[in-house]
Write a structure and sequence with these properties.
This protein is of the alpha/beta class. It has 17 helices and 18 strands. 35% of the residues lie in helices and 19% in strands.
Length: 475
């Protein structure tokens, strides 16, 4: 992010505009609209500027720009048709640590003016950082059609009710629940219908109906691509007071959580310090009993090797309200992005999912079943046990030439797919980093043919002249 989005209070604050033409007047009107104290500098000015000066709306200096004109101003806008003058304004402002905007010359700007959707007091700003202003304008036009005009009135009425609500509902979480219910319920409908007095009455009634009981939402974040989140997951993440998340949850997904939510990493990784399951359970109960809305965010699906069931049992025993939002499990998401169908009429009629967290002395898996041909075996968290997995499958009859694939960072931009055969599975696993998924079965051979995500394609080590890509074949 090249620019920090912010809204500045400019009422009665001194601002300078350099230029006397149509563009300068447009920028001046923008500043006047928010109550800024505008001084405009230009040897000649358009009629609209003269009229505004006569009405006492701004101060006009009919002279050439000098650097000392900047002194005492909060910001400046250069809007002349003279590139040398614009550059002088930019340089002089920078030397004084004054924010400056040079119209249509982003490199000389220390601030930019975004496209706006104005539903005062609701303001939506859209900017491309000067990279694609036409695209920003098109987005603004789209948003204009989506945001109804009455949103501004709704926000103004909410502002007038805030102090009264604070006296009735003392907790921040309780007030947040109130407003979410108000903005999605009868109050919003009444404002849209222009029935403002009834809308005020609806706020009064609702303020006595909000409970402050906490709750937990167990959410599957999917394998990594934020586009695979469910709508319900996003809604709850935006409402959370506390988010307890695992290491496997991708950073772009974490960015979608409510900005001021408390984020607590409780994930587990091999060879790293992690929070015990007992402590995770305790945190869930404590935060919920404190009246907070808690999101427990897990990679993939929370009920697929994610211990989600255990956590819900703890909540149920503690009398804590909860809900579950399923996620796309890695076996479905990562294989799809790698071009590997889990089932195929010609290659696999069944698909089995197992975890690779295996100990030899505690291995009770039915390897004879797992080693059957014409089926797909997907192994979660299996990199460190790949040699054991290989030996068991071979010992129980799986062909050493069975196609395999190791999918690293499935569905993410940095996804890599390593393909080969069962006889070299450990060497494939050594090439990959966690999080990774192992796929064993005839369908793994389709990865090269069905690759679609990213720019990767299957590469065979028989042709060393091919450049490395996201799909690497070690067969």
């Amino acid at each position: 992010m090249d620019y920090l989005p912010l809204f500045a209070q400019l009422k009665r604050r001194p601002c300078l505009v350099v230029g006397g033409g149509e563009v300068a007047w447009r920028k001046t009107r923008m500043l006047l609209k928010v109550g800024a104290a505008v001084t405009l500098v230009a040897p000649e000015v358009d009629r609209e500027i003269e009229e505004a000066q006569a009405q006492g709306k701004l101060r006009v200096l009919r002279e050439a720009f000098r650097p000392d004109h900047l002194d005492g101003n909060m910001l400046a806008i250069a809007a002349t048709d003279n590139a040398l003058v614009n550059e002088l304004v930019s340089t002089a402002a920078d030397s004084r640590n004054i924010l400056v905007n040079v119209v249509d010359d982003t490199p000389k700007c220390s601030f930019i003016v975004p496209s706006l959707v104005d539903r005062s007091p609701i303001i939506i700003a859209i900017s491309s950082g000067g990279k694609a202003p036409v695209l920003a304008r098109m987005l603004r036009e789209k948003i204009e059609t989506l945001v109804p005009q009455h949103i501004g009135k709704m926000a103004a009425m909410a502002g007038a009710f805030r102090d009264k609500l604070k006296a009735r509902i003392p907790t921040l979480t309780g007030r947040r629940k109130f407003w979410e219910a108000a903005f999605s319920g009868r109050f919003a409908d009444l404002v849209a219908a222009g029935k403002h007095q009834q809308a005020e009455q609806a706020l009064e009634q609702l303020s006595g109906q909000i409970t402050t009981q906490g709750e937990v939402a167990l959410i599957g974040a999917g394998p990594g691509d934020p586009g695979l989140l469910t709508l319900r997951a996003l809604q709850l993440m935006q409402q959370a007071d506390v988010v307890l998340y695992d290491y496997l949850v991708a950073e772009p997904i974490m960015e979608l959580c409510r900005r001021d939510a408390e984020l607590v990493c409780v994930g587990k990784r091999a060879s790293y310090h992690s929070v015990s399951q007992d402590d995770i359970n305790r945190l869930l109960v404590e935060h919920a009993q404190a009246g907070k809305r808690v999101v427990r965010l897990k990679g993939g699906d929370p009920f697929m090797f994610g211990r989600g069931g255990e956590e819900l049992q703890t909540l149920a025993n503690a009398g804590v309200s909860f809900q579950v939002v399923p996620g796309i499990t890695a076996a479905a998401g990562a294989t799809a992005y790698a071009g590997i169908p889990l089932t195929h009429r010609d290659h696999a009629q069944t698909a089995l999912f197992i975890t690779g967290h295996l100990k030899k002395e505690q291995d009770t898996l039915e390897w004879a079943t797992l080693a059957r041909a014409q089926q797909t075996l997907v192994i979660y968290m299996g990199l460190m046990k790949s040699a054991h997995i290989q030996s068991q499958l071979l010992a129980h009859g799986r062909s050493p030439e069975t196609p395999v694939a190791v999918i690293e960072n499935g569905t993410r931009p940095e996804q890599k797919v390593f393909t080969g055969q069962l006889n070299n599975l450990p060497s494939l696993a050594e090439q990959a980093a966690s999080p990774a998924l192992i796929v064993v079965g005839e369908v793994a051979a389709l990865a090269g043919q069905l690759t679609w995500f990213g720019e990767g394609r299957a590469v065979s080590d028989a042709d060393p002249t091919q450049a490395p890509t996201a799909v690497v074949n070690f067969a």
